[in-house]
Amino acid sequence: RLSWLENSGVGFSLDYPTISLHAVSRDLSAYPWEHLYVMVNAKFEEEETKEAPMAEGEEEEEEEDSDDDAEPIAEFRFVPSDKSALDAMFSAMCECQALHPDPDDEDSDNDYEGEEYDVEAH
User: Fold this and answer.
1) Is residue 34 part of a domain?
2) 61-to-64, 89, 100 alpha-carbon distances in Å
3) 19-36 burial, b if ≥16 CB within 10 A, otherwise e?
4) Is the residue at 13 inside a domain?
5) How far is residue 16's CA from residue 109's CA, in Å, rounded to a whole number?
6) Contact (CB, 8 A) for 53 and 15
7) Has residue 19 been placed in a domain?
8) In the chain, is it the N or the C terminus that has fewer CB atoms within a 10 Å radius of its CB?
């Protein structure tokens, strides 16, 4: 699970298999603060847009696509009070991703029986 707790003890958790993408965003033209961006395959209640920097532990959820046939998507931006924590947060997410391979992704298996591509030879 990905869990986020504020100093007050308020927080939430996401089951890791619902997380489809995570990245560190440092592009201040796309969002005013550096953050850990997480895309989740799930539907959540809408929240009000925050106008000021978010305190440690706060998240923002954006609207998902309105297409009824599409899988529901929610986006979260985790904005730590100390932006130097972003690299450690991203590394922890990568470690969890390695522990939870996508069962529908045939390429994530280690049972590949085809010919291996030799990068050094090419």
Assistant:
1) yes
2) 9, 19, 24
3) beebebeeeeeeeeebbb
4) yes
5) 18
6) no
7) yes
8) C
Q: What is the CATH number of the domain that holds 34?
A: 2.30.29.30
Residue 106 forms part of a structural domain = no
CB 80 within 8 A of CB 63: no
Expressed as residue numbers, the domain containing 37 is 2-101
Task: Please give the tally of structural domains in the chain.
Answer: 1
Query: DSSP string spanning 25-87?
Result: E--TTTSSS-EEEEEESS-----PPP-SPPPTT---B-PPP--TTSPP-EEEEE--SSGGGHH
0.70 surpassed by pTM: no
- Nearest Cα to Cα of residue 26 among 97, 87, 75, 76: 87
